[in-house]
Specification:
Length: about 950
C-alpha cells in the first residue's frame, strides 16, 4: 500500500492542506519547524487507516485549533494497483467512507479492510517510530510479536500459546499444588471432608435432644390449657369480672334514667312551651320595648320629612337664577384669563407702536398717520417684493454696463497711446532696417568683385546683413497695421458700451417707477429710492407685518372686552333679581352667588328626597305598630300558660320554676342516655344480658373483697401461665435451632459429595497439566522453525547500519519472566543484553533493524508505510547514510515517511535516495530545498 496524497480539511494546527502525486515516491520527507503539524499529519494518516481514538470531537486531542471538526481524505494505491480513497470526519460521532471507484461504502469508525488483522497498538509500535520509541520495544508489543510470530497466532480468532499455557497452568494450580502455598481447591475439599467427619458425633446428640424437647412441649401445653380454660381458670375469672365491670353498671345507669323520665312525665305529659320560657319572656319584653322605640322614631322622621318639604322665598329666588349663576361660575376662569389677556394686548399694542415708529423713521418720509396705515394695510407684499427684485436686477445690469463702459474707455485710451508711440518707433526701426539692407547689398557686391576667401566672407556677411535689414523693414510695416486695427476695435467697443449703459439706465428708472407705484400712497424717503438696498425691502415688509399684526391684536382686544362687558351685564341682572348689594369684583360676586345657589340646591334636593321617602316611612310606621301589638299579645299568652302550671296559686313565676325542674329531670335523663350510648355503644346487648342473668338469679355485682380476691387469683394464674409460655418459647427456639443444624444423614451426604468433587478436581488437574505440556512443546518446535529467519534478517540490517560493528542479534527465552534480546560485537565471544550501557544511537539502530525485520512478519496483507520521526538525529553521518540506504532498498516494496525539522538533512536524503520533499504549510525556512 502506498499513500498517493491527502487533503486535510482540519486536524489540530493543520487546515486546508492538500498534497498529491506521492504514489511513485518511495521515500517522502516531511519537513517543518517545530509545532507546524508533522505529528498532526502522522495522527491524521493513522486515523485514516484505523479510525478516530477517542471517538468524540470534544475529547479528541487534535480538535482543530481554529474550531470545527477533525476530518479529511487520504488517497492510497494498493498492491494490485487499485486506487482507494478514505474519507473520515469526527463530529458528535465518527463517520467514514471508502471510495474504491464505485459507489462509496460506509466505513463508520472501523479500520480499513487491508489493516484489519493488525492491531492499532502494534502498528504504532512497529510501523511508527519516534526517538524515544526507538530505544526499546514495549513489553506488550514484544509479547504480542512473539505470540504472532513464534506462537502461531497470526489470526485474530486464535489465542497466543503463551497465554493459553499460562492460563492452563494457573487453572491446574488453582485445582492442586504439590506445596502448601496458596489455597488450591483440592486442599479446601480435603479440609472440608475432615471437618464433616468431625461433625457426625455432635449431630447424633442434637437428634436425641430434639426428641426430649418434643415430650417436654406436650407436657407444658397440657398444664397451660388447664390454667386457662379450667373451672377456676383465667377464662372464668375474666367472665365474672367483665360482668361486674361491664354489665352491672349498664343495668344500674338504666334504672336511674327510667326514674328521671317518670318524674318529668308526671309534670309535663306534653311540653309545648318554649325551650327557655324565661329567656323567651325577656326577649318578648325586649322586643316590645324596641318596637315601641322604633314607632316613636319613625313618627319623628315622618314629621321631619314634612318640615323639609317646605322651601322659603329666598331659596326659590336663587333657584330661579340658577342658569345665569352657573354659567357665570363656569366662565370665572375664562373671565380672569380675558382680563389678563387684555393687559397683554395693551402691552403688545404699545410695543408694536414703538416698532412701527422705528421702522417708519427708516422707510417713510413722515410719521405713520391713518393714511400711511391704510396704505401699509393695502400693500401687496408679494408684488412689492417682485418689483423690488426686478429693480435690483435692473440696477445690477446698469452697474455692470457702467463698469463695461469704463473698461472700454480705458482700453480705447491705451490703444490710441500705443498707436502714437508706434509711429515714432516704426520710423527709427524702418531707417535702421534700410541701412542694414544697403550695407548687406554693398558687401555682396564687394564679395563678387574681390573673390577668394575674403570675397566669400563678404558675400556671407552681406547676405546676412541684407536679410536682417529686409526683415526689420517688413516687421515695422506689419506692426503699424496691427496697431491701427486694435485702435479701431477699441473705438467700436467703447461706442457699444455707451449704448448699453444708456439702455440699462432706462430700464432701471422704469423698474424704480414700477416699485413706487406698488407702494401706493406711502410717502417713502427719497434716499431709499436712489438705489436698491436690501434693507429697504426688508424694513418695508416688516413695517407692513407690524401694522397688520397690531390691527389683529386691536381686533382681538375688542372681542375680549365685549365678553367682559357681557358678563358684567349678566351679573347686574342677577343682583337686581335677588335684590342683593355685593362688594368686590365680578369673580368674588360670582363665587358668593354660587355658594348660596349650592345651599339652595341642597335644600331643594332635600325636599325632593323627603317627598320621596315619606310614603315608605309611613308604611314602615304601620308595620312597626303591628309588630308592637303582636309582641304584646305573645307576652300575655306566655305568662298565662306559665301561671297554669302552678295549680295552687296560679303564679307565673312559680309555674316557671316547676317547668324548669321537670325539664331538668328530662334533660338529665336524655344526657345520661346519650352518655350511655356514647361510652357503651353495645349497651342494649349488655342490658338484655343483665336482665337475663338477673331473671336467672345470677348476682352481677361484686363486693370489693370479692373483686380483690378474684384479681389476686387471676394475677397468680397469669404469672404461672407466662412462665409456661416462656418455657414453650425457649423449648421451641432450641428445637428450631437444632433443626436448623445438619443432622447425621445430611453430613454423611455432604461427605460423599465432597469426596466425589475431590475426584473430579484430580482428573481436571491432570487434564490441564497434560494440555499445558503439549502446547508448550508445540510452541517450542514452532519457535525453532521460525525464529531464525527473523533474527537473521534483523542481523543483516544491523550489520549494514553499523558497518559490521555488530554481527549478531539473538533472543534468550530461558528466563521464566520473559525473552531478552541479545547483541554481539564483532570479535566478541558472547552476546550482551540490549540496553545500558549501549549508547542512545546504538539502541535506536538495533531496534530499527529489529522492526525492519518485523514489519514483513506481522503484516498479513498490504505492506503498510513506515513513519520515522527524527530517527537519525543521534546517528553519526556514516550510520545515518547506511540507514537511509536500507530505507532506499525497501522503498520499491514499502513506502517510507521521514519527519524532520532540518531542511538541510532533508535535502541530503533527497540527493542520496531520491526522496520526495513535502514541506508543512507553515515552514519558515525553505531555502535550498528542491523536491525531486
Amino acid at each position: 500500500m502506498r499513500i498517493a496524497g491527502w487533503r486535510v480539511d482540519a486536524f489540530g494546527p493543520l487546515r486546508d492542506w492538500a498534497v498529491a502525486d506521492l504514489a511513485q515516491a518511495g521515500i517522502v520527507v516531511v519537513v517543518g519547524d517545530n509545532e507546524t503539524g508533522k505529528s498532526a499529519l502522522f495522527e491524521f494518516l493513522a486515523a485514516a487507516l484505523f479510525g478516530f481514538v477517542p471517538t468524540t470531537a470534544d475529547q479528541h486531542p487534535y480538535t482543530p485549533w481554529e474550531g470545527g471538526s477533525p476530518g479529511g481524505r487520504c488517497d492510497v494505491v494498493l498492491a494490485n494497483g487499485s486506487r482507494v480513497g478514505v474519507a473520515r470526519r469526527l463530529t458528535s460521532r465518527a463517520a467514514g467512507t471508502l471510495d474504491a471507484g464505485q459507489s462509496p461504502s460506509d466505513l463508520a469508525n472501523r479500520p480499513v479492510p487491508w489493516v484489519s488483522g493488525l492491531p492499532r497498538a502494534m502498528f504504532r509500535s512497529i510501523h511508527a517510530l519516534t526517538q524515544e520509541e526507538a530505544l526499546e520495544v514495549r513489553p506488550e508489543t514484544w509479547a504480542h510479536v512473539q505470540d504472532r510470530l513464534f506462537g502461531g497466532a497470526s489470526y485474530a480468532f486464535l489465542r497466543p500459546a503463551r497465554e493459553a499455557v499460562e492460563e492452563l497452568e494457573q487453572g491446574a494450580s488453582d485445582l492442586w499444588r504439590p506445596d502448601r502455598r496458596g489455597k488450591p481447591q483440592a486442599a479446601a475439599l480435603r479440609a472440608r471432608i475432615r471437618d464433616l467427619r468431625g461433625e457426625l458425633g455432635p449431630a447424633a446428640e442434637r437428634r436425641a435432644r430434639i426428641l426430649a424437647i418434643d415430650q417436654e412441649l406436650r407436657d407444658t401445653e397440657a398444664r397451660l390449657h388447664e390454667m386457662e380454660h379450667g373451672p377456676a381458670g383465667l377464662q372464668e375469672i375474666d367472665v365474672r369480672l367483665e360482668r361486674a365491670d361491664a354489665v352491672q353498671p349498664v343495668v344500674a345507669r338504666m334504672e336511674a334514667i327510667r326514674v328521671l323520665e317518670a318524674t318529668a312525665a308526671r309534670v309535663l305529659p306534653e311540653d309545648e312551651l318554649p325551650a327557655d320560657p324565661r329567656m323567651e319572656e325577656r326577649d318578648l319584653a325586649r322586643d316590645l320595648g324596641a318596637a315601641g322605640g322604633r314607632v316613636a322614631g319613625l313618627a319623628a322622621e315622618v314629621a321631619k320629612r314634612k318640615a323639609a318639604m317646605e322651601l322659603d322665598d329666598p331659596t326659590r329666588a336663587l333657584l330661579a337664577q340658577r342658569d345665569p349663576i352657573e354659567r357665570l361660575h363656569l366662565e370665572t376662569r375664562l373671565h380672569l384669563e380675558d382680563v389678563e389677556r387684555v393687559g397683554r394686548m395693551d402691552r403688545a399694542i404699545q410695543t408694536a407702536d414703538g416698532q412701527i415708529a422705528e421702522l417708519a423713521a427708516r422707510v417713510l418720509a413722515g410719521g405713520v398717520d391713518d393714511a400711511a396705515r391704510s396704505a401699509l394695510r393695502g400693500l401687496g407684499v408679494a408684488e412689492f417684493r417682485g418689483r423690488f427684485e426686478r429693480w435690483a436686477e435692473a440696477w445690477q445690469v446698469r452697474d455692470d454696463a457702467a463698469a463695461a463702459a469704463e473698461r472700454a474707455h480705458h482700453e480705447l485710451g491705451r490703444a490710441q497711446a500705443a498707436l502714437e508711440a508706434g509711429r515714432g518707433a516704426r520710423g527709427v526701426v524702418g531707417r535702421r532696417g534700410a541701412w542694414g539692407l544697403i550695407v548687406g547689398l554693398a558687401l555682396v557686391v564687394a564679395g563678387l568683385l574681390v573673390g577668394g576667401p575674403v570675397g566669400s566672407a563678404c558675400l556671407a556677411l552681406g547676405a546676412l546683413a541684407a536679410g536682417l535689414g529686409a526683415g526689420v523693414v517688413w516687421f515695422a510695416r506689419s506692426q503699424r497695421g496691427v496697431l491701427v486695427q486694435a485702435c479701431a476695435a477699441a473705438e467700436r467697443v467703447h461706442a457699444e458700451a455707451g449704448t448699453a449703459l444708456q439702455r440699462a439706465d432706462t430700464r432701471a428708472a422704469a423698474a424704480r417707477e414700477a416699485l413706487r407705484a406698488a407702494l401706493g400712497g406711502l410717502t417713502v424717503a427719497p434716499v431709499r429710492l436712489e438705489r436698491p438696498v436690501a434693507t429697504f425691502a426688508t424694513d418695508s415688509e416688516t413695517l407692513h407685518a407690524a401694522v397688520v399684526e397690531q390691527d389683529g391684536i386691536a381686533e382681538d382686544r375688542r372681542e375680549v372686552t365685549a365678553r367682559i362687558e357681557a358678563r358684567d351685564t349678566a351679573l347686574g341682572g342677577v343682583r337686581a333679581a335677588l335684590a342683593l348689594e355685593l362688594t368686590g369684583d365680578l369673580v368674588a360676586h360670582v363665587r358668593v352667588l354660587h355658594d348660596r345657589l349650592q345651599g339652595a340646591l341642597e335644600r331643594a334636593n332635600g325636599a325632593e328626597r323627603a317627598a320621596a321617602e315619606l310614603p315608605d316611612l309611613r308604611n314602615r310606621l304601620g308595620t312597626e305598630e303591628k309588630a308592637r301589638d303582636g309582641a304584646q299579645l305573645r307576652l300575655d299568652s306566655l305568662r298565662a300558660r306559665l301561671a297554669a302550671l302552678d295549680r295552687e296559686g296560679a303564679d307565673a313565676e312559680r309555674g316557671l320554676d316547676i317547668l324548669e325542674q321537670a325539664r331538668d329531670a328530662r334533660r338529665r335523663a336524655v344526657e345520661r342516655r346519650a352518655d350511655l350510648e356514647r361510652e357503651t355503644p353495645e349497651w342494649k346487648a349488655r342490658l338484655a344480658e343483665g336482665e337475663r342473668l338477673a331473671a336467672a338469679g345470677v348476682v352481677l355485682a361484686l363486693s370489693s373483697e370479692e373483686r380483690a380476691a378474684l384479681r389476686r387469683r387471676r394475677q397468680d394464674l397469669a404469672g404461672r401461665t407466662a412462665e409456661l409460655q416462656q418455657d414453650l418459647g425457649r423449648l421451641g427456639e432450641e428445637r428450631q435451632r437444632l433443626l436448623g443444624e445438619p443432622g447425621p444423614a445430611h453430613i454423611q451426604g455432604d461427605i460423599e459429595a465432597a469426596e466425589a468433587e475431590l475426584d473430579d478436581v484430580w482428573r481436571a488437574h491432570d487434564r490441564l497439566v497434560v494440555l499445558a505440556a503439549a502446547i508448550r512443546e508445540a510452541e517450542r518446535r514452532y519457535r525453532e522453525r521460525f525464529q531464525s529467519p527473523l533474527l537473521v534478517a534483523a542481523t543483516a540490517h544491523l550489520q549494514r547500519i553499523t558497518h559490521q560493528r555488530y554481527d549478531l542479534l539473538a533472543v534468550d527465552d530461558t528466563d521464566p519472566s520473559g525473552a531478552r534480546l541479545l547483541v554481539r560485537r564483532r570479535g566478541a565471544d558472547f552476546p550482551i543484553p540490549v540496553g545500558r550501557p549501549l549508547s542512545r544511537g546504538a539502541l535506536q539502530q538495533i531496534y530499527l533493524a529489529l522492526r525492519l525485520a518485523l514489519v514483513d512478519q506481522v503484516e498479513t496483507g498490504e505492506p503498510l508505510p513506515l513513519f520515522l520521526d527524527e530517527m537519525f538525529v543521534n546517528w553519526d553521518p556514516g550510520r545515518a547514510a547506511g540507514g537511509v540506504a536500507i530505507l532506499a532498498d525497501l522503498a520499491p516494496m514499502r513506502q517510507v515517511f521521514l519527519f524532520t525539522a532540518d531542511p538541510t538533512w532533508a535535502q541530503r536524503v533527497a540527493d542520496q535516495a531520491g526522496a520526495r520533499i513535502v514541506p508543512t504549510p507553515v515552514l519558515t525556512d525553505w531555502a535550498g530545498l528542491h523536491p525531486r
